[in-house]
Amino acid sequence: MTRKDYIKIAEAIKMTLDQYEGTKGHTAEELIESIAGRMAAVCAAENPQFDPKRFFTACGLYKNN
Predict the structure, then answer these.
(1) CA–CA separation, 28 vs 58, rounded Å?
(2) Which of 28, 37, 39, 51 could bond to 20 as cystine, CB 3.0-4.6 Å?
(3) Per-residue pLDDT tens for 23-56?
């Protein structure tokens, strides 16, 4: 996978998070965190330089301070 792939994945996750924000039951963020965590593990296995924190930030799960 390339950096372009990682960016596309992160954008798709962020769009989903934005779409389901405020839903009842399990939060959309919980669902997205789970999916993103699994995807990050796969990406890290493919590329030792993959940065999960940067990926989660791009997904909208961590906010830059």
Answers:
(1) 16
(2) 28
(3) 767 777 778 788 888 888 888 888 899 999 999 9
Give the separation between CA 54 and CA 64, rounded to whole angstroms: 10
* Contact (CB, 8 A) for 28 and 17: yes
SS (H, E, C) 13-43: HHHHHHHHCCCCCCCHHHHHHHHHHHHHHHH
Using only the alpha carbons of the chain, give its radius of gyration. Answer: 12
Answer for the pair 6, 53: CB distance below 8 angstroms, yes or no: no
Buried b (16+ CB within 10 A) or exposed e, 18-53: eeeeeeeeeebbeebbebbeebbeebeeeeeebeee
Structure tokens at 29: 């963020």
Give the up-direction half-sphere exposure of residue 48: CA atoms within 13 A in the CB hemisphere.
0
